[in-house]
Amino acid sequence: MTRFKVVAALLAALAVTGPALAADPDPQNWAAVEEEATGQTVYFHAWGGEPRINAYIGWVADQLKARHDVDLVHIKVTDTSGVVAQVLAEKTAGRDTGGSVDLVWINGENFAAMVRHDLLMRPGWAMVLPNWDYVDTDGKPTVLTDATLRIDGLESPWGMAQLVFLHDTETLPDPPRTLDALADSVEANPGRFTYPQPPDFLGTTFLKQLLLTYAPDRLALDRPVTDAAFETAAGPVFDWLDRVTPHLWRQGKAYPRSVSELRRLFADREIDLAFTFNPSDASAAIADGELPESVRPYLLEGGTIGNSHFVAIPYNANAKAGALVVANVLLSPEAQARKADPDVWGDPTVLDVAGLPDADRARFDALAEDPAILPPSAMRPTLREPDPSWTERLEAAWTARYGAR
Amino acid sequence: MSAATTEGLILDTVEIRRGTETLLALSACIAPGETLSVMGPSGSGKSTLLACVAGFLAPPFSATGRIGLDGADLTALPAAVRRIGLLFQDPLLFPHLTAGGNVRFALPAGTARRERTGLVRTALAEVGLAGFEDRDPATLSGGEQARVAIARVLAARPRALLLDEPFSKLDAAMKDQIRALVFTTAAERRLPVLLVTHDPADAEAAGGRIVRLA
Amino acid sequence: MLVRFAPALAIAVLIGPVLAGIAGVALPAFGYLPALGGHVVSLAPWQRLLAEPGLATSVALSLWTGLASTLIATAIALLFVAAWSDTRAFVWMRRVLSPLLSLPHAAAALGLAFLISPSGWIVRLLSPWATGLDRPPDLLIVHDPAGLAMIAALVAKEVPFLLLMALAALPQTDAGRLSRVATGFGYGGIAGFAYAVLPRLYPQLRLPIFAVIAFATSTVEVALVLGPTTPAPLAVRLVDWMGDADLTRRFSASAGALLQVAVTAAALLAWLALERLVAVIGRGAIASGHRLRRDGPLRVLAAGLALLCAVMIGAGLAGLTVWSLAGVWRFPDALPTRWSLSAWTEASSGTGALVITTVAIALLATAAATLLTLACLENESRQGRAPGTRVLSLLYLPIIVPQVSFLFGLQVLLLAVGVRPSLAAVAFAHLVFVLPYVLLSLGDSWRAQDPRYARVAAALGASEIRIFWRVRLPMLLPAVLTAAAVGFAVSVGLYLPTLLIGAGRLPTVTTEAIALAAGGSRGLIGVMAVWQMLLPLAAFSLALAIPALRARRFAAAWRIAA
Fold it and tell me: Closest approach of chain B CAs to the CA of C372, in angstroms?
């Protein structure tokens, strides 16, 4: 073991080198932030699996270049937890300034991990952004609490998400609208339903939906998980899964790896139902020709799980001022309205549309009505996420039970 | 007998070893225009002797003794400056160069650019291949390739020739022609020649002394 | 005399990063990673690793898929060489298989997945007229728990590699004459080859086979696309753990990285045991004197299997190409009902930059690797001796130690010494993987060159430098260019080194293809797969065209003269 200690000491000695911390920009003095941001390059690490989102980020980059002389570079990542790992690797190596990530698209347990390991820029800055005033903190409480953690301005809201199911009105006009009905339908039609394999984000979200639906005590889910609480709450979830698993697509011996693979199976008609965490997915996939025009979204009776997604700045970001300017632009009514346009991306806004100035409200009113977007009459309640400690526990239990036999 | 004072190619108590075992020992003096034929079965170290004289001896072989040429001591010199021409049983023409290019490759470094073309043409003409400058070696017959190899080795203006079974792959009719060409040219140019062969006819045609290795 | 230092430099380039990377995971594997609060050396990471559900299954899968695919690929490659070398069919098959060598594993796997999956091209072509299906059957073909789809892809991809490596080694074994001697004694063609040539050929194939075992037991990209998922093979789970949001998992992931080294080592040992067994059986067979003259069916089988490899991958890639041009393509249509260039045009804004980055990295790494290789080989020629096999084995360290195991540690180390993600840093990481293949590819042809050419040139008064530039290099130009093309193809196909050392800032067509595979449409995956095919193909075409151009000039000069 002594040899390990020697090498470790050498590595640690290497790790403490590096320049002293430079003063961080102060968002209270916004004019100074904008001035400092001029000419900076902001590396925005964001999931890059969706061409429409990539194109939207490209549009944001054009606006930033023209109006603020900020270069926004989209680093397309496959998995946000890899970005967390990267910042952590930099912290391990003692690189406390000049980090490679300036801004990251994040939420949920990745955010919780960054908070836990103190990897985020402090103090909280989001609520000081000029465009924060438009954010709908009353109507959309998930912009203040991310997976039960108080955000305290450590990340800035970007968009909204809710679990939405998809069915083809021509082949399945009357889809199951409760999880009980879904289990019956899976038993009756073996091989025609599946979900992405946890810990994939959407797969885990589906497990959380089961948990929120069947847990006897909803309030227990808001507290950190304990062995006893998990037994009680997750028992019915695994009863449900035990019942359907033999009848799943591939008898539950293989699962799709992501939301897009699930959608692809749905498009190929391997499965009867799909679900997504982006309410406008159906509309976009129809526009792309991926899904037939008869596909419609719907929500479960009693509501589905929903949350917000955010952007955050790592503690060692190289272009903090530039990252603040980007976060503010992402919150602007113009950028939010464009993002909500189903022809562009279709991601619901975090702003309070009713409270916007007339000209900005008009941008939202102008968005085309789309039959593949849920009408107000189809809306159901948004269910709060459980405490993040439940997520990890649920994933581990699922993996032990179904993912590693 | 001293390597430094005599004309021709001198092998002064040359002894070649593989590891610690002695492979062969030889002393000889080859006068200009004379041919010494070394004969022996395969494995007797004939080719190793030539490698030693030409300057290519590599492990596991080692040698003692001295090698002299026209009064100069070659023992410590690298192969490239010994000016000893080498002919193998294969013509070993560079396949990426034309026949003329092969000869040109051999011209001594100091040769003026203007003279080169003329020298190449003459060298090929002397071996009976006038006008073959631009031929691809791969398109030549075996006899023609051997002739180009001879033209090439002579173009380097060697002061001695080493022949390693140079005629063994030629057919009978061709063999006599090429033998005659090599030995007359060597005699004309007064080159000492060291020939290793297992063919008594080669040694006979060479006309000089014969050394037999065990 | 700088070439004297080339071998030392090459060894430093190859071994340094591997050892450093292993140190970078060895410390956290025993609990030491101060930034995460790991200050005490402990066995806790190992305990947590061993408690992972299904770990034994994952390890078994890595061993099984790695060994089975290597065994099948080796058998097909050797059988084909035995049955068909020295025939026209051989030349033809070699032409068909060679391009597959240059194809990145990721593209081959994606192509195969599209071909054989229940919604894939084969079922589409047969439906509904033959199968009666109007929607894909629920068959567990891809991601099957036994890893058969993954093994199929690995076999299809490695057969060309082993076949070409065997071809490179054949001339040194005097195969033609030896097997003719054997057939002269009345042995069948395959038996003659197996008894007379194989014992001399195999030692030269051992390192390439080890490289195949190492890759197959630790591949991430092939397993992601085709492999089992409940659970996945060890390497895939390692990548998951290393990227897990729960950062403390990095300790047990590091222990897992060391476990992966052990798994690959175990596979290599198992192979060595198998070698012994085959040798004993082989000696018995030789002693028995059976002539095995009626080997016709076996010859047909060999050709059929080799052809199947080519056809599977070729058809899969054709399918991906069609997908890149598809507007609407629903099951069970055999072809898209609407064609569209949108996948190409949508990607076009970013694709140019991706291709330029890919080519720049590959050119840098390949140029450095080729220069270093030439310097090493030239030094070898001047010293008049080849390095011992032990030194050679060291040179193959980076392709025999699993990538996942040392790249994570290497990433931490590069950050520690202040190396920022840059084109040069990624190109250096690629060099570590490219150099062994360039050495592997060029070394044999270099050493096979008749040393008497250099002696003739030296006797004609040429200096060592002149001999290198005017004799060795031009004579070996085709081999040098081919080796460089191999290096280029390896670089284009690298995924983990690009991602980890480039910190995601230098996306290439391969990292983009895998990023898209996790989310994008099949059309865009098709676009990226086509680029992954085109770039290495362009390199190989150039490697073939340049010597041909020279030959044509040569021929023209001769025609004028004649």
Answer: 24
Taking the Cβ of residue B54 and every Cβ of chain C, the question of whether any pair is shorter than 8 Å is answered with yes
Q: What is the mean pLDDT of chain C?
A: 85
Nearest to C379 by CA among C283, C306, C334, C443: C443
Is the per-residue pLDDT at C174 higher than 80?
no
Q: For the beta carbon of residue B110, count every other beta carbon within 10 angstroms.
A: 5
Instruction: Report how far apart, in Å, the C-alpha atoms of C452 and of each of B51, B52, B90, B92 are.
Output: 10, 14, 9, 8
Is the Cβ–Cβ distance between B104 and C466 less than 8 Å?
Answer: no
Which of A12, A50, A259 lies closest to C34 in CB terms?
A12
Separation in Å, CA of C549 to nearest CA in chain B: 12
DSSP state of A355: G
The answer to whether the CB atoms of B136 and C555 lie below 8 A apart is yes
Collapsing DSSP to helix, strand or coil, C124 comes out as helix
What is the distance between the alpha carbons of residues A102 and B78, in angstroms, rounded to a whole number? 62
Is A97 an 8 Å CB contact of chain C? no
C300 lies within 8 A of chain A by CB: no
Last residue of a domain, one of B108, B140, B157: B157
Q: What is the number of structural domains in chain B?
A: 2
Q: For C163, list phi and psi in degrees, rounded to 5.
A: -65, -45
> Nearest 5°: phi and psi at A224?
-55, 145
In this structure, the number of other CB atoms found within 10 A of the CB of residue A352 comes to 16
Enumerate residues 104 to 123 of chain B having a beta carbon within 8 A of any beta carbon in chain C. Answer: 105-106, 108-109
Nearest-angstrom CA–CA distance, C503 and A210: 36
Residue A44 has φ and ψ, to the nearest 5°, of -100, 110
Q: Is B83 exposed, middle or buried (0-12, 13-18, 19+ CB in 10 A)?
A: buried
In sequence order, the β-bridge partners of residue A296 are A167
Residue C468: its chain B contacts at CB < 8 A?
Answer: none
Torsion angle of the four alpha carbons C371, C377, C381, C383, in this order, in degrees rounded to the nearest 10: 100
CATH (domain of B211): 3.40.50.300
Specify the pTM: 0.79
For residue B85, the surrounding DSSP H or E stretch is strand B84-87
Q: What ipTM was predicted for this assembly?
A: 0.88
Chains with 3 or more CB pairs under 8 A to chain C? A, B
Q: Which of B54, B58, B155 sits opposite C459 (nearest CB)?
A: B54
In one-letter notation, the amino acid at residue A301 is E
* Number of domains present in the structure of chain C: 2
What's the sign of the alpha-carbon dihedral C489, C491, C492, C496? positive
Is the domain of B21 the same as that of B113? no
Burial class (CB in 10 A: 0-12, 13-18, 19+), A207: buried
Structure tokens at A374: 């849920």
**A20-77 residue pLDDT tens:** 345 788 888 999 999 999 999 999 999 877 778 888 999 999 999 999 999 999 988 8
Query: Which one, of B8, B83, B24, B35, lies nearest residue B182 by Cα?
Result: B35
Q: How far is residue C407's CA from residue C503's CA, in Å, rounded to a whole number?
A: 12
Q: Which of residues 510-529 of C touch A (CB under 8 A)?
A: 512, 514-516, 518-522, 524
Contact A404 C519 (CB under 8 A): no
Q: Is the dihedral of CA C131, C135, C138, C141 positive or negative?
A: positive
DSSP assignment of A255-303: --SSHHHHHHHHHTTSSSEEEESSTTHHHHHHHTTSS-TTEEEE--TT-
Q: Give the mean model confidence (pLDDT) for residues A280-289.
A: 82
**Domain region containing C378:** 1-42+345-562
Q: Which residues of C touch A400 (CB under 8 A)?
A: 53-54
The answer to whether A and B touch (≥3 CB pairs < 8 Å) is: no
Domain boundary among C340, C365, C384: C340
Q: Give the C-alpha separation, A23 to C516, whole Å.
A: 38
